[in-house]
Structure formats: structure tokens, C-alpha cells
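Record type: monomer structure entry
Structure origin: computed from sequence
Chain ID: A
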Amino acid sequence: MWLTDQQKIGAGLVSFGAFFLFLGIILFFDGPLLALGNVLFTSGITLLIGPQKTFYFFARKQKIRGTICFFLGMLMVFARWTILGMIVEVIGFINLFGDFFPVILNFLRQLPFIGQLLNAPGVSAVVDKLAGARQSAV
């Protein structure tokens, strides 16, 4: 699968956004880092899948609660209510992107070291429960 230059930039922005969000949480909810991470993440998503698809993704009727929570959390982070804003934002993120967790879990299970850890007997059941992965009948 080949990515266009715009999609490569979008993937980089999403990666940097996730890094700054992680760093902002590690550094005791540092507001400027969280705000920068939010801006980079949302602009990266827009470049990665395109503006029209991004709008349709966030405006879907079944995802409107997640969209409101996600952007309300971002506004709260910008207003320096970082801890409460991140809690609201995480709730919105789970509502928006929760459908992708089983796909991500299956991808991670195919990686060399992480896959062995995720397929361990005790860990596998817990991770399946958290990700909402469905067990196949076969």
C-alpha cells in the first residue's frame, strides 16, 4: 500500500500528536504539550484520510456523542482544565475509535515480541475483554 506525500505527512503528524499527548500526560498533564498533541493529532487525521472523509467520520449520527466529548475535551485542555479535559477527551476517543481496537489487537498479535505477550494465556483473555474482540466459533 503506497501513501501519497500528504498521507505520509498526516501519518507523521498523528505520530507526533500521540507522542506529545503521551509526554504531556507523563509530565503531570502539562497543558501546552497536551494542546500541541491535540492539534497535531486532529490535523494529522485530516491529512491522512482527507478533509471530506474526516468531516463525515466525525459527523456520523452514531458517533455524535463521541465527537462532542472529543472536541469538548480539547476545548477544556485549551482552557487549561487539563485533567478534566483529558478525561472527557478519552471518553470521546473511545466512543469514536473503539471500533478499531479489535483490528489493532489482531495486528499487534502478529508482531514478534508483542504478539507472544498478547497471546499468553492470562493476558489474552484480559486483552480480548478490554478490546472487545469477539471469539470465533471455528
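Annotation 1: The two ends are 30 Å apart (CA to CA).
Annotation 2: The mean pLDDT is 92.
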